[in-house]
Design a protein that fits this description.
Number of strands: 2
Helix content: 55-70%
Distance between the termini: 45 Å
Strand order of the largest sheet: 1-2
Oligomer: single chain
Strand content: under 5%
């Protein structure tokens, strides 16, 4: 008969703590919420605007209900107050909006996306958040390649939204252009190559972080990176290519910063970073004709300069508070229907988030938005480059997770120069979610979400240092 003492050397090993079914279901719901944001317009293309709206609103209500039931610990003083200010300004624009119905409708989307972002950041730990993002990205990428394969093998013709097979007046109307075996750009389930490209780039980053965390089944993660790289290449998005270059520069700089042993050693890296960044912007501007020609794009970013001129002209009529929040523009609203036409279609955004906000919320809105992104970039940067420390110990190892926010910041800021998508869907969700998460849990493995997990497991909790 075996006899065990209480000494660790002879005590039987304790089994790992098992998560309750409730928490597993909660994490599954967070994966679905992220998938909704990452897949973007796929829901509209597949089920129509009404069904997509019902699913979005119902999802937001369910998350609010779960938040009330779970009651995760929240450090209220550490809320992302610049985000709150932006949402408040957008809401107040109802008072002077020139398109109140569009403002009210798009405000609902803004509130839901912001609430979902705060919800996920508060109920998941850092590791769970990265794992959930990886799972959601797998669904987006897998469905995108399967959708394109289904169109190429079984339909063998371009497909319009609603799974309709018909000839469109312009290829821009197609959900899928049947390009998988034809050599053209792939659009995935989003129906837009400029949306698929950045999501594929995000997937490469998230899967890479999972590998660095020594997650199980790393061979499969390398396969997912291969699929992500393939879709990134086939999307052929010039904006995504520039974003990838920015990600490489930021990643290299962060890794160099981590090698510095004394604060003054970082100065030379900051100088080099500034030179590379400013030099890259100058080269992009002065050599844009050659660069975009090499990428198969026009120097005016495929007509974007004409769109910006028209939007800025309208913005100049109401310079300070703008015309009212509207992200995206509602195509049935008389203010936007037929206002700017591109390839025979009404344009639904300014294709630049700063120009868009300039028109919608004026100079005041641009300043508030700048503070939102400045705060996010500032916190995420030092979250990545500073060694975890909350006492006298200064030799704690860096976590690969801390790279995620700053690399996503590089993607959304570059994307915001040619698209307005960082103001909605996954761009806005990840900025709010990660920015709030850094404030609530500035150290990986410490914070309210970790306490919530301990409560779910029935373990004792303690306040973060």
């Amino acid at each position: 008969m075996a006899v065990h003492s209480k000494h660790p050397a002879s005590a039987p090993p304790a089994p790992p703590v098992r998560e309750k079914s409730g928490h597993l279901m909660l994490r599954g719901w967070c994966i679905f919420v992220m998938f909704m944001a990452l897949s973007g317009t796929a829901w509209v293309h597949a089920f129509g605007e009404l069904s997509a709206a019902v699913i979005t609103i119902a999802g937001g209500l369910l998350s609010v209900a779960l938040w009330i039931v779970i009651r995760p610990p929240v450090a209220w003083r550490r809320l992302p107050w610049f985000v709150v200010a932006f949402v408040a300004l957008a809401t107040l624009s109802l008072l002077w909006s020139a398109w109140p119905q569009t403002t009210a409708l798009t405000l609902l989307l803004l509130w839901i996306t912001t609430t979902q972002a705060l919800f996920i950041g508060n109920v998941l730990t850092w590791r769970e958040l990265v794992r959930a993002a990886a799972s959601a990205l797998k669904w987006v990428l897998a469905l995108s390649i399967l959708f394109e394969l289904w169109v190429a093998v079984f339909v063998q013709a371009p497909v319009l939204p609603g799974f309709e097979v018909a000839t469109a007046a312009d290829p821009i109307e197609y959900w899928s252009r049947n390009n998988l075996f034809e050599g053209g750009r792939l659009q995935g389930i989003m129906g837009n190559a400029n949306l698929l490209g950045p999501v594929a780039l995000l997937a490469i980053i998230v899967f890479g972080i999972r590998i660095a965390l020594r997650a199980p089944r790393r061979g499969l993660l390398w396969a997912w990176i291969g699929l992500s790289a393939y879709l990134f290449y086939r999307a052929s998005s010039a904006t995504a290519y520039v974003a990838a270059a920015a990600v490489v520069v930021v990643l290299a700089t962060v890794l160099l910063m981590r090698r510095a042993r004394r604060p003054h050693e970082r100065t030379k890296y900051y100088v080099a970073y500034a030179v590379v960044g400013l030099g890259g912007l100058a080269a992009l501007y002065f050599l844009r004709d050659s660069i975009f020609a090499a990428l198969g794009r026009s120097a005016d970013l495929t007509g974007r300069e004409d769109i910006w001129d028209a939007v800025l002209e309208r913005a100049g009529e109401r310079p300070w508070l703008g015309w009212g929040y509207a992200t995206p523009w509602a195509p049935w609203d008389p203010a936007f229907d037929g206002w700017i036409i591109d390839h025979g279609q009404t344009v639904l955004q300014a294709h630049n988030m700063w120009v868009d906000i300039r028109m919608q919320l004026g100079i005041v809105g641009v300043v508030v938005t700048a503070f939102v992104y400045l705060a996010f970039v500032w916190r995420s940067w030092f979250f990545a480059v500073d060694r975890p420390r909350w006492d006298l110990r200064d030799d704690r190892p860096y976590s690969p997770i801390t790279l995620l926010p700053t690399l996503i910041g590089a993607i959304v800021l570059v994307q915001g120069l040619a698209e307005s998508s960082p103001l909605l869907l996954w761009g806005w969700m990840f900025v709010v979610m990660l920015g709030a998460k850094i404030k609530q849990s500035p150290h990986v493995g410490v914070g309210p979400a970790e306490q919530s997990l301990a409560i779910e497991r029935g373990e004792p909790t303690k306040q973060a240092p």
